[in-house]
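Hi support team,

I'm opening this ticket because the web form for multi-chain structure prediction keeps timing out on my end. I have pasted the exact lines I submitted so you can reproduce it. The total is 535 residues across two entries, so I didn't expect it to be a heavy job. Is there a limit I'm missing, or should I split the entries? Thanks in advance, R.K.
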Amino acid sequence: MSDFHNRSQLVSTRRSDYVWQYEYYDDEEPVSFDGLKAHRYSIVIGFWVGLAVFVIFMFFVLTLLTKTGAPHQENPDLAEKRHRPEGRLVDINGHQEENDKAFSRPLLDGSPSYFNFYISEEDQAHKKRKLEDKRSSTKDKVGRHLCSSEIEEMHEDIEESGGHQPLNRLIEESKTDRECAFLSHFNIPNFVNLDHSSTLGEDDLLYEPSIILERQSQAHNAHCDTH
Amino acid sequence: MNQTDCPEVKVPFLVFFTVGIISLAENLLVVVAVIRSRNLHSPMYCFMCSLAAFNTIASVTKTWENLMIVLADAGHLEKRGPSETDLDDVMDSLLCMSFVGSKSSFLAIAVDRYGFFVFQTYSYITIFHALRYHNIMTMKRTGVILGLIWTLCAVLAVLMVKFFDFKFIVICFTVFFIISLATICFLYIYMFMMARIHARNIAALLGGGRDRSQHQRRWGSNMRGALTLTILFGAFVVCWAPFFVHLIIIVVCPMNPYCECYRSLFELHVVLMMSHALIDPVIYAFRMAELRHTFRKMLFCSGWKLCL
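Hello R.K., no limit was hit. The queue was backed up. Here is the completed structure from your submission:
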């Protein structure tokens, strides 16, 4: 507080041609308190109540985002936003529960297009894949996507990561009891919540990402051990 | 003064001193741990180290300033002498610098996590790209970014204290605060949502059966993720917003009695701001297992050659 006093004093002695527009805590001019209609601390109380409401609202929004909810009608104009590589998420996502449309709720109606992008993509995928055999369609889609678009990069990455297995065998290894072998070859981030890993979740996303990259070669077994 | 006026709420110096010393100790611990241990030399930990360094500067400066105020009130120091005003300038610059720096470090941490996350998304689809981000965000680039942040903060601090008008500073700070809050909010919520898509798609890819217990387990960890995010933002907003509203009120309604009552709580708001430097390491750094492990080694095994 005294630094404000000091600063005003300092400026008035050094730069007298400047005119200070504000008045702050001038002891010579007390603020009059006559005729107050509301309680004198009303701004303070209003501010803290507003802040508490904001934090609680944010928490509820986040927990709502974690739940599965009501179906959301498609946005047809957002269907063409497929320029991001994450668009391919949808094709792998064949295995859906009936009510499992996490972000398709009216709450997100006004949200940025990124979120609606996922909602519309997932809805389309869900409608397409409803009657198919989910597991085989998943594997086929993965295989097709990987083979069709990533062949050149795959070769250099195989050498980088040290794995030597061909792609098809890796895809066929996608059973829960062989999760560890799968992970050890793919180095999937450990914040993904897999079947057995109830202790890992989005928490790890927030504080463990760089560790994965640091243990490139020895993390294959470490992943198995932590899971 | 009228009977209904709002007396200024005075916080005892001991509270300031305690908060300052504890936050200084914690942040210094983080800085030393990251610098000393080899396996913590990664972008994420460097940004956290920079955040902790800014918090250290802030807490040192604030504690020192309060010490000077106490001494000046006790009559040992001349309140308006030339050396005191210069020192005041220096401390104000340091405070500005630490404020802008800690906000920029938050932004850098959020952007780093976000960038990593986007690459992870891409990587699990293609399966082999998990290592790409490590090539994009190298230590050299991290050093460059950190150097830029520190230089920018120092320059801004000096400029603001020397040349600019108080109103302009308030406007700048408020705008920067709101922009950084909005950006961080957006990045984290986006990551949160993408993590959920990740989890479901990976589980689908591995072909697990959808039974009730698995669903409940995932819901439990999602709740924890939501709680973590709420704590992160909640602490940021609760600790910084009162001070900012104070700055705005000074500019907007200096003579209003309601505003005067809000301004009388200034020292409480400053304590809140300082306590943010105290809880920052707890919610960012101490949650990372690697850092905790390094602390334990540093603090408890310093004498023994066996613990290495």
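A quick check on our side: The mean pLDDT of chain B is 78. Let us know if the file doesn't open in your viewer.
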